[in-house]
Amino acid sequence: MKTPILAVVLAGLVTACASTPTVSTDHDPNAQFGNYKTYSWAMKPEGASPLAQQRIISGIESRLQAKGLSQVASGGDLALAAHISSSTKTTLDTMYTGTGMGGWGYRGGWGGGIGMASSTTQVRNYQVGTLIVDLFDAKTQQAVWRGTASGTVSSSPEKNSAAIDAGLDKMFASYPPGAASP
Q: In sequence order, what are the residues at sequence separation of 6 or more whose Cβ sits closer than 8 angstroms to the Cβ of residue 106?
């Protein structure tokens, strides 16, 4: 069932460790960001738990408003679309004991003996969630800005909430492009 997985993925953009999401942004160098004063939602993120969805929506809105944009119900200068995706990644952790090479030297030369070695491999599956935020010029319907944040999902709602904030902070730190960062 995908909905619970997406709920966890959306809520978590980083691992339970102290890591932060990987964030990147891109923009149209010809866009006149100084002309954009309002925004409206074209598509809100779906497929997550209602609480995680609320956190992401309010996080995006508060950051855009802090940058001087005002939200309008429809017809904003910018159309805002946010999407989430998830994928399952697998890692193999192998631990070795002994060398299995035997001895070297006087009798038998290099590796001439028989040695005992063993290995244990553990398969670990984990979820990676990605949040994508796109801004479109509403008049031209052309994309003008994109931000992405991606990270490993934690099982802790508190850590996931902190990860959402960290990802959005990094994503909007240099918005609008060319403006001095605070």
A: none
CA atoms of 130 and 165, how far apart (whole Å): 14
Q: What percent of the chain has pLDDT over 90?
A: 51
Tell me the whole-structure pTM to 2 decimals. Answer: 0.74
Q: Which of 47, 50, 27, 67 is nearest to 130 (CA)?
A: 47
Give me the pLDDT at residue 11, please. 42
Q: Where are the beta strands (DSSP E) in the chain?
A: 22-27, 38-43, 70-71, 78-97, 118-137, 142-152
Distance in angstroms (rounded) separating the CA atoms of residues 29 and 43? 24
Averaged pLDDT of the chain: 83
In the chain the domains, ranked by start, together with CATH numbers, are: 2-92+125-172 (3.30.160.670)
